Amino acid sequence: MLLEVKNLRTEFKLKRGTVRAVDDVSFTIDKGEILAIVGESGSGKSVTSLSLMGLIQKPGGVAGGEILFKSQDLSKLSQKELQEIRGNKISMIFQEPMTSLNPVWRIKDQIMENIMTHMKMSKKEALARTVEMLDTVGIPSPAERANDYPHQMSGGMRQRVMTAMALSCEPDLLIADEPTTALDVTIQAQILELLYQMREKFNMAVLLITHDLGVVYEAADRVIVMYCGKIVEEADVKTLFEQPQHPYTVGLLQSIPQIDNESDEHLFMIKGMVPNPLHMPPGCSFSDRCDRCMERCTKEMPELQEINGHKVRCFLYDKAEEGELSAK
Amino acid sequence: MNEVLMKVQDLSKYFTIDTDWRGKPVSVLKAVDEVSLTINKGEAFGLVGESGCGKTTLGKILVNLYSPTSGKIFFEGKELSALNKKQRRSYCKDIQMIFQDPYASLNPRMTVGDIIAEPIIINKLLPMSEVEERVIFLLNCVGLARHQRNRFPHEFSGGQRQRVGIARALAVEPKLIVCDEPVSALDVSIQAQVLNLLDDLKEEFKLTYLFIAHGLGVVKHISDRVGVMYLGKLVEIAPKKELYANPLNPYTQALLSAIPVINSEKKERIILKGDVPSPINPPAGCRFSSRCFKEFEPCKLNTPKLKEVSPGHWVACHLF
């Protein structure tokens, strides 16, 4: 086991109240595994990834829980100790390739900075490694392009540069926060292919944060579905897409227009919208949008239960029916 | 059904990037280059393509936000560029647009009721005494309530704002609505709500849509016919079932194979090499030739023209 997150809670203290963006989230990632976290905006998926990296800024902060990376608790480390791990053992690809590179530095200097900080290489060696990494991620004529500034590159190329930077120290864990959202589909296919190859090559684990269920289906081994800061379902990819259990997951899957769908009928809709995090409904946070909501759902929060490796947080699958999950 | 509502003939829009000392253009961006298409009454025509392919520019020309460099637009048989300003104005009322970003396309200082009422008042469609009633009717049509009339855009979520944008477009009773990526800024569960709303409104108001999007799943859901654009050129037009089942242009094939699909066997992907070339200096000949996996000799020399290869299925490629 590479990373184990236990009961992570991240809170933002605002004037109008406290928002619990990540609420009691626990999961594990094994070596070489691709774990995807899906959810809509405001579900807490990005905050989860930032919490792992210790990048949550005031007025927010990790309020509880443990983040065990190779049995070392990251949440207890000082910023200086974290610096040793960040970009070295755990690295991150950010959502917007347009804004996450420094516009006034050359590509090579940005990548070399990371290498020289962590790998104790001379400038010459670091440059050689930079060019090698740019080549690995598929940048044509890497030695020349290394001298470019970010604005001279297209979105797909910048995302490749970000990936090269993230992979330059051969991390054990790569956190990819919506790595393809800002890109076109043909470029998205290239980047996903690249992530796949890199995993094979370096045997690293990937935590893939996305809202695109298609990407999840193609890329991930295991999936976590988040809603309003909580994990509502967790299963391996095949099980989740073939037998989704939680009404939210079911609705989400049905509401996507698919290119292999021949019918012209109306799309399935989840009614309403994500509740305001300051005014959560009592009980299950999905209860006001759920079409299978029962009286009990509006009063208490269901627990995340595990049955045969498939975790789900819903009263429809209460422990009352021991054994298999049965959809009523 | 097959009555032609809008016909576009060899439409081009060039943007001058740089001029020499005489003011003569030396560098020109061909955003839309000799595009021809027809939109029939009552249909939804989908337009797909990657960023920078000119699909939004085309939409903006059709609603008269840009004037074309060359080419003709016929709306209900009349050529738009031949009309004088006054006549043109009454036609512009018939063609409305829904914009991509619901956060940027509504005036933050106006209440949503005023936003919807403004086009009615400017076009003098109703006596002032009836405007309010119409605004409430429109709000109800798009699924908003009467009490939300006096709220400001910032009080609404993205999906609700997009509904306001739709109500504003409907306010002048248009015949054609250009929907420019109306759902790409929304979450999946909200996206389905807005798509269904657009579907219902099309029935109710007998609308015609030009639906611009980059999500092929969304386009397939809502359109009857689909056109594919690449670097300012239309490369394929076909009825949607035909296009998705039997794409002919290699670019369309690659685009379709690049989409991650749920619940199907993991398919062979066509991974295109490289990026979309700059539209300022597009490759000679076929613009896709630099990335095409079926590229052969004539591709670098001639630009292929749109040809009808089977009824209703047009493709621009030297293979056909």
Automatic annotation (TrEMBL), chain B:
Q: Which UniProt keyword terms apply here?
A: ATP-binding, Nucleotide-binding, Transport
Entries under CDD domains matching the protein: ABC_NikE_OppD_transporters (cd03257)
Quote the InterPro entries the UniProt record gives.
AAA+_ATPase, ABC_transp_ATP-bind, ABC_transporter-like_ATP-bd, ABC_transporter-like_CS, Oligopep_ABC_C, P-loop_NTPase
Per the record's keyword annotation, is rRNA-binding included, yes or no? no
Q: Ranges for the ABC transporter domain?
A: 6-256
Molecular function terms, GO-annotated? ATP binding
**Entries under Pfam families matching the protein:** ABC_tran (PF00005), oligo_HPY (PF08352)
Highest rank taxon of the organism: Bacteria
Locate the transmembrane regions by residue number: none
PANTHER family listed in its UniProt record? ABC TRANSPORTER, ATP-BINDING PROTEIN (PTHR43776:SF8), TRANSPORT ATP-BINDING PROTEIN (PTHR43776)
**NCBIfam families found in the cross-reference section:** oligo_HPY (TIGR01727)
Q: What is this protein called?
A: ATP-binding cassette domain-containing protein
Gene source species: Desulfosporosinus nitroreducens
